[in-house]
Structures are given as structure tokens and as C-alpha cells.
Amino acid sequence: MARPRTHDEALRLRLLDRAGELLSTEGPKALSLRRLASDAGTSTTAVYSLFGSKPDLVNALYTEGFQRFESRMKSVGRGADPIADLVGLGLAYRESALADPHLYSIMFTKAVPGFEASPEATELARRTLDPLLATVRAGIESGTFSDVDPAVIAISAWGIVHGLVSLELNGNLPPGLDVGAAYERALRAHAEGWSAVDRGR
Description:
Shape: elongated
Largest sheet: none
CATH architecture of the domain at 61-193: Orthogonal Bundle
Distance between the termini: 63 Å
Number of strands: 0
Oligomer: single chain
């Protein structure tokens, strides 16, 4: 049977965004299909039609978060300076987190106990690191970055952006701090720290 026209993409996205908000603000117990349908102004039938079960909804939420994240990471162009490119990816990471903070917890924490992403969603999440790895490899090949395992540089870059963004989202940064400027300066200092130039590496 064809899906009713009212159960369209706009409703799917509205339900996912509301599900993320419930999860991030009130925790997994608040994420009931009945509550979600009521908050979104639709029926539980619509929720089941679009997603199936609650685990399917959580998997769709996880997938949506990484699809949006991947789109932003892929939008960062490759230039002549790998250091600037690495900083650009870090800025895109923060932009994604600030645009969709309600999806961040399902993407990067155990927000729903017992949740295991589908193989397809797991592969999508892994693939979002490809632009970062490609940028690091290009920097090593050009002699800009030290000749080390690309995964070491990539994971350290991911660690610094994830840590700073998590502190920002949780309100743990000092009051009055120019977060954007401090964040970009930290990214640049980290990227330059891997420079192969005049460092004897």
C-alpha cells in the first residue's frame, strides 16, 4: 500500500527533529511514539508508517544526524594549503553541531541505552571521516604534515574539535569567551603543530 501523501518528507523531518529535541533535553524515557506524534501534531499511525518501531526511529535519527554532518563536511573545498583545509573541516564540524545540537547526542554518545545502529548507518558514520582523512593524506603527500600514520593526525584533529564543541554545547566554557575566535585559533595551532617544516620531524 502506498504511503499516504500526508506522511511526506516534511513530516518525517519534523518528527526526527522533535525526536532529537526530546532525547537531548528530557532523555530517552521521553522518546515515546505517542508523545512524539502529539508534539508534532500528527498520529501514531503516521510515525509507524514513516519509521516502524521505536528502534527504527532511533536508527533513523542517528542516520539523519550523520547525513547532515556528512553534507557539511563534503561542502568544505580542497585548496592549496592543507593546514587551512584542516581548519576548514573543523569549522564545518562546529557549524554542524550548532545547527543540529539535538542530533549531536545520538550521534556521539550512548544517549539511548542498548541502541545499536544498523550496518548501513554505521558505515555512513564511518564514512563521514573520509574528507578529514583525505585532507591529512594530501598534507602528508605534499610535505606539509609530518610523515606519520594519517589516522594519528585525523583522530587528534577529531578529538580537539569534538572536545571543544562538546564543552560549548554543554555550557562549560568560561563566560565572555569569544568562542568562535578561540575555537579557530585552537584548530590552527593544532594543525600547525603537525607541520613538517622546520620541526625536525
